[in-house]
UniProtKB/TrEMBL annotation:
Signal sequence segment: none
InterPro entries attached to this UniProt entry: DIOX_N, IPNS-like_FE2OG_OXY, IPNS-like_sf, Iron_ascorbate_oxido_reductase, Oxoglu/Fe-dep_dioxygenase_dom
Domain (Fe2OG dioxygenase) ranges: 194-299
The protein's name in its UniProt record: Fe2OG dioxygenase domain-containing protein
Gene3D superfamilies: B-lactam Antibiotic, Isopenicillin N Synthase, Chain
An MF annotation (GO) of this entry: oxidoreductase activity
Upper lineage: Eukaryota, Viridiplantae, Streptophyta, Embryophyta, Tracheophyta
Pfam families, A to Z: 2OG-FeII_Oxy, DIOX_N
PROSITE patterns (alphabetical): FE2OG_OXY
Keywords associated with the record: Iron, Metal-binding, Oxidoreductase
Length: 348
């Protein structure tokens, strides 16, 4: 593996993660732009029980006020998550030259490598990822020619479970926005067959000097919703803007066993006509290896998402022009965090 290959992928291979001192390429100077705080008191991230009789109301409030919440009683068996975790360990423990057999090709979002957002930052992330859309069988065969089926079975099992959870959450969000049960099915996210999913398996290697490195730089997700599973090690932080309580700060998202973190992305912000907060988040590093899986949910590639007519129309003007998911990703690849500005409807 040449340095050239890894630079193009914007990642460093695991053996290179074992630096005694952090190389300049990975040393972030501005990690303390805002203080990092604990999720306590008014900064406690909402925890929502999916069996709560007031579920719709609570989800709506969390999406508006936070853009992130933790869910429990989600119905996915802990064994399914344990199996996913074992396969993630197995994947990232492979030698670098094996993982590079399934490296993301130019312009392709599936396979092993870094993330598109890292290209906007001058420093490398302390991270390696594997993106899956549809079946991972072709890649799994290259990684484990003699035993690829166990990985595929676990991914398929997890995909099924997380898809139905994602669908349930999106419906609850739409209901909280006032969309009726009947109208729900006419939306671009109305039923599971209309929802597109992408799965990202993430590994954040342990670091002896974690205060100087970053797992993922600050970003919003482009999708409607992301559901994140974490292996018991925290690292995710969400930005809470200056309010009556405190100045702008990074709030640590706790890693609560048997829960998922739900993030609101750009497309849900657009669909809700700006009501739901597309939360800015980043991933910090610790002295323990962290694994996470982020599943992104959005509409099929050719479906446009715009402010829902229930919210924008008679009384409220639509704030954004409709956009497809790949369309938004393309704008983000050029304009980074100014992408939503580019689809904003001029109010004058
Ligand atoms: C479906 C996707 C969302 C994502 C781009 C991708 O095609 C696969 C990688 C995803 C990810 C993960 C880390 C943060 C993020 C902003 C990035 O650069 O890559 C997201 C992308 C996104 O939200 O658009
Ligand atoms: O690892 C995490 O907790 C979050 C990952 C993330 O933000 C992403 O994949 O977009
Ligand atoms: Fe993210």
């Amino acid at each position: 593996m040449s340095l050239h290959t890894t630079r193009k992928l914007k990642i460093h291979q695991p053996e290179n993660f074992e630096f005694d001192s952090i190389p300049d390429s990975h040393s972030w100077g501005n990690l303390h732009d805002h203080p990092s705080v604990e999720p306590i008191g008014p900064d406690a991230i909402p925890v929502i029980d999916l069996n709560d009789p007031k579920l719709i109301e609570k989800i709506g409030k969390a999406c508006e006020e936070w853009g992130v919440f933790i869910i429990r009683n989600h119905g996915i068996e802990p064994e399914v998550l344990n199996r996913l975790c074992s396969q993630m360990h197995r994947l990232f423990a492979l030698p670098a030259e094996v993982k590079l057999k399934v490296a993301k090709a130019e312009g392709n979002d599936v396979g092993y490598g870094g993330t598109p957002v890292s290209h906007f930052f001058p420093k490398f992330s302390w991270f390696e990822g594997f993106a899956i859309v549809g079946s991972p069988v072709d890649h799994a065969q290259k990684l484990w020619p003699d035993d690829y089926s166990s990985f595929c079975e676990v991914i398929e099992e997890y995909n099924k479970a997380i898809n139905s959870l994602g669908c349930r959450l999106i419906h609850a969000m739409l209901l909280s926005l006032g969309v009726s049960e009947e109208a729900l099915h006419q939306t671009p996210l109305g039923d599971s067959s209309k929802i597109k999913t992408a799965m990202h398996l993430n590994s954040y290697p342990a670091c002896t000097n974690p205060d100087r490195v970053l797992g993922l730089p600050p970003h919003t997700d482009s999708a409607c919703v992301a559901i994140v599973y974490q292996n018991g090690v925290s690292g995710l932080q969400v930005l809470r803007c200056k309010d009556d309580i405190a100045p702008t700060r990074w709030v640590r998202v706790p890693a609560v066993p048997d829960t998922f973190v739900v993030n609101i992305g750009d497309l849900m912000h657009v669909l809700s006509n700006g009501r739901f907060h597309n939360v800015l988040h980043r991933v910090t590093i610790s002295k323990t290896n962290r694994l996470s899986s982020a599943c992104f949910f959005g509409p099929q590639a050719d479906e446009k998402v715009g402010p829902h007519s229930k919210l924008a129309g008679l009384e409220e003007s639509p704030l954004y022009r409709p956009v497809t998911w790949p369309g938004l990703q393309k704008i983000r690849s050029m304009l980074h965090d100014k992408a939503l500005q580019a689809i904003k409807i001029d109010s004058n």
